Amino acid sequence: MSTQSLSAGKPGNLKGFWQQGQTLFLDYEGAVLSITVLDKNMVRFRLAPGGTFAKRRSWSVTSPDEDFPASPYTFTPTPNGIEITTETLLLKLSNAGARISILNNQGLLINEDSSEGAVFWESEGKTIWRKTMPEDEHYYGFGERSGLLDKRGRRYTCWTTDPWQYTSDHGPGADSLYQAIPFFMALRQETGCYGIYLNNTHRTAFDMGNPRSNQYSIEIEGGEMDYYFIYGPEPAQVLERYTFLTGRMPMPPRWALGYHQSRWSYDNEQIVRGIASQFRERGIPAEVIHLDIDYMDEFRVFTWNKTNFPDPAKLISDLNAQGFKVVTIIDPGVKHQPEGGYHVYSEGSAQGYFITNPDGTEYTGCVWPGTSVFADFTRTDVRKWWNDQHNELLAEGVKGIWNDMNEPAISQYPFGTPNNPVASPSLDAPMGDPEERITFAEGKNVYGLLMDRATHEAMLRFNPNERPFMLTRSGAAGIQRYSTVWSGDNLTLWEHLEMSIAEICNWSLSGVGFSGVDIGGFGGHGTPELFARWIQLGAFYPFSRGHSIEKVSQKEPWTWGSEVEEISRRALTLRYRLMPYLYSLFYTAAQTGAPIWQPLLYQFSKDTTTYQISDQVMVGHAIMLAPICRPGQTTRAVYMPEGVWYDFWSDERLTKPGYRLVEAELDTIPMFMRGGTIVPFGTEMQYSDEKPLDLITLEVYPDANGSATGVLYEDDGHSFGYQHGEFCLTRFQCAVENGKTKISAQRQGQYAPAPRAIEIWVHGEGEARSYQLPRDSGNWQVEV
Ligand code: GLC
């Protein structure tokens, strides 16, 4: 029997169990619960109300159960049910109703199903699993979310949505946004952190205490209740396992870490050339220009408007010579042009590659080109065909693809029509490969993810020796494997500036490390002061791009007057000086899943004050930012967690934990360096490969014992050589021995960076002391 024909119910009493490898199956009067021990801290639960498990879907999870090395576990029937132990966890399953309690090996209860009943189903796959919600537990992640950091007390739907179509806003009240990543983390001081990944791409929801504050629920509208429980106890450990499961961001090309400039729309090549020249003439670092929809011929994807962009290859090569790369936007909506003359439509239609209505006719809806059709990216052959379409763009020198509107966002009437209702293929629309037929109800949430996969594969195919760069608006669990993400259409509001911190941090805690929001805000004009504060912070976003809607005032850094121009120059110059540190963070992210931006709790998980700090952020392990997010403010309270900190600007050494008031005039973002770290800085550059790095400055910030460590990762910045040992990883160490401070560097890897001078600044109670090393020829040790 399948769940389809089931009426409402819940698991009955435990009638039997059987074991198959790492999995234990428990029969609760016809409903079967499977429990798979994947490793000592990760257990997968699946429920088949009718006894038959659903087919496995491969879209998000890259590590199927078989890929995990067998991890020892035992199970024991007890009078109350069954107990399963791994090296670190004890799971207790009740005799009635499949109620689960999870304890760690010290006997601490980490998570427990609701005492009112664990799980029940209402109809056709609509299943709800309820868990208790301790008062002091806080929740993070849930993919792309607006609002503050801690997600306790609200309901979060996972259903890819363009909020602009509903309210022209994605403010704190918005629920579903463009991406659907059904993963969250729970954190308590006493028991640490665990994560739950819900492996289901239908519309799902997490109800975190609404209406009842003592329980939360995991809800699915179709498919199978299938979730992974991941214990930390550190947030970093949860993330490491979650990103093992759904994949990690690969190393991006170094240029992608530079500043990107965009606007809807740089309409013709003169404008684009002008923008590039302005950056260079004004000495404001930047290296990527994004072309929004107006580069196309009447918004037909994979075409150029040849009047406004007569020779794209020449334009791109000229921009390259100035140190700029070009990224072009691509939308999934293909202009419906049955009369012929547009090969993307005619080929796709002839092959039956577009999503159909349930009756098999081509589905049409309106996007930029007017009436459009939509490729079925859940099909392998369609992805391959879409992949083919990129050949020309990439051959012309386009270096990155920006996939937009891929929720997919569709209207009933052409854009611009008043009161234009949202449109969508029917939830019953058939999709998928012949051996994996699904409906749109299951495919919608992964539509963007699979479009991105097609693009990613195209980039690897046409430029096999270059690391791809992509940007996407929609996505699902695992999107980090293919693409950088941004938060779509934010508004030019102070509130949205502040919200970007928690938004990026919650993305980070959902496995997505390379993210950003439109610097300056997409919708609206803004003020010079807002832009100044935004670019100060945006210069540290993992993905740093200024972008704006059309028909509002220009928002490039120089358009706000000389003071803001200078502030922008200073902010972006600092980003480029920090490139060695940032690039090293990306390396760690690619290795372990550790995000670039981290909420304070990620580093200070025992400090409960950090659990709800939404307006400060760690950039990696060493830098803490406390941006000003209100007009007219030049003072703010900053929370300093335990330890030694150094004010980056004044070099003041701070040792008193707790809140302190900090001054920050318009040209300054409050920034603190963490004691115990060594941060590698490079030299000023207009773009990342402008010139060889001939000087590395090591800023040494000792902890209370005078010790510090740091890492510098280097490679050629664009190829895959690093995967075969062509990298150079230098570990720096500073320690005090017999009253003397010793600093050393140890190298690993086969890549040899050009020799360069090393300058060391040791910060401390008084003035920083500086030392020069003549040439860096590998390993060294100095006494300072
Ligand atoms: C969408 C994107 C936005 C882009 C616009 C035009 O609204 O989110 O970034 O500028 O479409 O392509």
From TrEMBL:
<feature type="domain" description="Glycosyl hydrolase family 31 C-terminal">
    <location>
        <begin position="593"/>
        <end position="679"/>
    </location>
</feature>
<dbReference type="Pfam" id="PF21365">
    <property type="entry name" value="Glyco_hydro_31_3rd"/>
</dbReference>
<dbReference type="InterPro" id="IPR013780">
    <property type="entry name" value="Glyco_hydro_b"/>
</dbReference>
<feature type="domain" description="DUF5110">
    <location>
        <begin position="696"/>
        <end position="764"/>
    </location>
</feature>
<dbReference type="InterPro" id="IPR033403">
    <property type="entry name" value="DUF5110"/>
</dbReference>
<dbReference type="Pfam" id="PF17137">
    <property type="entry name" value="DUF5110"/>
</dbReference>
<dbReference type="InterPro" id="IPR025887">
    <property type="entry name" value="Glyco_hydro_31_N_dom"/>
</dbReference>
<dbReference type="GO" id="GO:0030246">
    <property type="term" value="F:carbohydrate binding"/>
</dbReference>
<dbReference type="Pfam" id="PF13802">
    <property type="entry name" value="Gal_mutarotas_2"/>
</dbReference>
<dbReference type="Pfam" id="PF01055">
    <property type="entry name" value="Glyco_hydro_31_2nd"/>
</dbReference>
<feature type="domain" description="Glycoside hydrolase family 31 N-terminal">
    <location>
        <begin position="33"/>
        <end position="207"/>
    </location>
</feature>
<dbReference type="InterPro" id="IPR048395">
    <property type="entry name" value="Glyco_hydro_31_C"/>
</dbReference>
<dbReference type="InterPro" id="IPR011013">
    <property type="entry name" value="Gal_mutarotase_sf_dom"/>
</dbReference>
<feature type="domain" description="Glycoside hydrolase family 31 TIM barrel">
    <location>
        <begin position="250"/>
        <end position="585"/>
    </location>
</feature>
<dbReference type="InterPro" id="IPR000322">
    <property type="entry name" value="Glyco_hydro_31_TIM"/>
</dbReference>
<keyword id="KW-0378">Hydrolase</keyword>
<dbReference type="GO" id="GO:0004553">
    <property type="term" value="F:hydrolase activity, hydrolyzing O-glycosyl compounds"/>
</dbReference>
<dbReference type="InterPro" id="IPR017853">
    <property type="entry name" value="GH"/>
</dbReference>
<keyword id="KW-0326">Glycosidase</keyword>
<comment type="similarity">
    <text>Belongs to the glycosyl hydrolase 31 family.</text>
</comment>
<dbReference type="InterPro" id="IPR030458">
    <property type="entry name" value="Glyco_hydro_31_AS"/>
</dbReference>
<protein>
    <submittedName>
        <fullName>Glycoside hydrolase family 31 protein</fullName>
    </submittedName>
</protein>
<dbReference type="GO" id="GO:0005975">
    <property type="term" value="P:carbohydrate metabolic process"/>
</dbReference>
